[in-house]
Sec-independent protein translocase protein TatA (Frankia alni), 90 residues
Amino acid sequence: MPNLGTTEIIIIALVVLVLFGSKKLPDAARSFGRSLRIFKAETKGLRDDEHPAPAAQPAPLPIEAPAVSPAQAAQPGASVNGSAPVADRH
């Protein structure tokens, strides 16, 4: 790649100034900056789509068994959750 010296940079700057004019040059530079930002965000989005980061999974909640005493478990028709037992409908 050729090295750009001071005179080459000045010539390029003068050509750009003549092409765009002194009033349009700041607007053109601003538009160019916005375009680069959008391009950078889009390429980052493509890279993220290509290699998705693992999503954080919430930890499962522990399931607690209801407390039942051995005496309650031996009784027929006893309720497990502490509510009143349901009567048989024969």
Remarks:
- The radius of gyration is 37 Å.
- The helical segments are 6-50, 70-74.
